Amino acid sequence: MDRDDFRNRYRHLQYGGGTMARRRSRPRCEHVLEAETRLANALEYLNTLKWSAIMGGPYDSEEYDRAILAYRRAARAAQVARHVAQTSAAQTPAAA
Questions:
Q1: How far from chain centre, in Å, is Cα 8?
Q2: Among the listed residues 76, 87, 88, the one whose alpha carbon sits nearest the alpha carbon of residue 35
Q3: What per-residue string of b and e applies to 59-76 under the rule 16 or more CB within 10 Å gives b?
Q4: Tens digits of per-residue pLDDT, 49-87?
Q5: 6 Cβ partners below 8 Å, 6+ apart?
Q6: Whose C-alpha in 16, 59, 66, 80 is 20 to 30 A from the C-alpha of 31?
Q7: pLDDT tens track for 16-59
Q8: Inter-residue contact 1 to 43 (CB < 8 Å)
Q9: How far apart are CA 62 and CA 93, in angstroms?
Q10: Is this structure's pTM higher than 0.70?
Q11: Residue 96 falls inside a structural domain
Q12: Number of folded domains in the chain?
């Protein structure tokens, strides 16, 4: 998922409500974007290690374990960032 697809998916968080809501929700959305980017990078690295081992390349079990832990941390951080953005957007009062 590229940056534009991500922005379109979370457009309601960026531009929901009035002027104040827009100012408050944009940094939250950027936080979600950064967390999702870290998650995608961790998954890409994990898949690179996995396919390297499958294709007969070097395999370091400790490095693979670290990659799994990094992916899990990134997945949890992305989940928390999404949750915070969604609950913050829901609690932001609409402009009068």
A1: 14
A2: 76
A3: eeeeeeeebeebbeebee
A4: 999 999 999 899 999 999 999 999 999 999 999 999 888
A5: 33, 36
A6: 66
A7: 444 444 444 456 688 899 999 999 999 999 999 999 999 999 89
A8: no
A9: 48
A10: no
A11: no
A12: 1
- Which ranges constitute the DSSP H helices of the chain? 3-9, 11-14, 19-54, 61-91
What is the extent of the structural domain holding 14? Answer: 3-91
Give the closest residue to 96 by CA, choosing from 11, 21, 30.
21
Question: Is residue 17 included in any domain, yes or no?
Answer: yes
Cβ neighbours for 94, distance < 8 A, ≥ 6 positions apart: 17, 18, 21
CA 51/CA 46 separation, integer angstroms? 9
Please report whether residue 21 resides in a domain.
yes
